[in-house]
Amino acid sequence: TQLLEQSPQFLSIQEGENLTVYCNSSSVFSSLQWYRQEPGEGPVLLVTVVTGGEVKKLKRLTFQFGDARKDSSLHITAAQTGDTGLYLCAGHRGGSNYKLTFGKGTLLTVNP
Amino acid sequence: GAGVSQSPRYKVTKRGQDVALRCDPISGHVSLYWYRQALGQGPEFLTYFNYEAQQDKSGLPNDRFSAERPEGSISTLTIQRTEQRDSAMYRCASSLSTSGSNEQYFGPGTRLTVT
Fold first, then answer.
1. Per-residue pLDDT for A31 more than 70?
2. N or C: which end of chain B has fewer CB within 10 A?
3. What does the pLDDT look like over B28-79, one tens digit per residue?
4. Interface contact B44-A94, CB threshold 8 A
5. How far apart, in Å, are the Cα atoms of B62 and each of A100, A112, B79?
6. CA–CA separation, B49 and B72 (whole Å)
7. Are A83 and A76 in contact (CB under 8 A)?
8. Chain A residue with minimal CA distance to B55?
9. CB contact, 8 Å: A50 with chain B?
10. Would an 8 Å CB–CB cutoff place B48 in contact with chain A?
11. Distant-in-sequence, close-in-space partners of B106: CB < 8 Å, separation ≥ 6
């Protein structure tokens, strides 16, 4: 059973389009992180959200944490070819165990 | 400053051999994590350490896999009697403190191929 479900699994769009990717779970998380991974590299953190309903913006990227802290979304406005990559959400369940559980990712391709 | 380093970057071994994968975290980082990642998929948790103490090894697939971090810095992931299904990218990450919401910095990974 996958604790964090990401959708869509693959997304191919044209430069300038907007898109939203989702990260859903039936479990509550104390915090959730979004990472981007480029080919041949390790994941790099984009944002951490910790409060239900929280919205964070990073230039053209908008991240939202669901009110119940079970889901999150990433919206990209006016996508650029440099946004291409694997987008991963990762959750921390809380308590004294600090491991992160990753989703399988959304592979985004932005075409020129 | 130096990021997380892993060695070797590529390892090809024959089935049945033992392999040791090394991770050198960012200096001063308390927590160290090992993951396995299939191509185009998210990292799969294996185990993690706070300082030298192994806090959670629930993700290790079986008893052929073990990890240690004896001095709270460099860590080694050992796979005994390798099998072809062990072929994967093995990634290490470290974080500054023990909070689950802290950023994890990932290394470049070791690509293991078992023939």
1. yes
2. N
3. 999 999 999 988 889 999 999 999 999 999 999 999 999 999 999 999 999 9
4. no
5. 20, 45, 10
6. 8
7. yes
8. A97
9. yes
10. yes
11. A42, A43, A44, B4, B43, B91, B92, B93
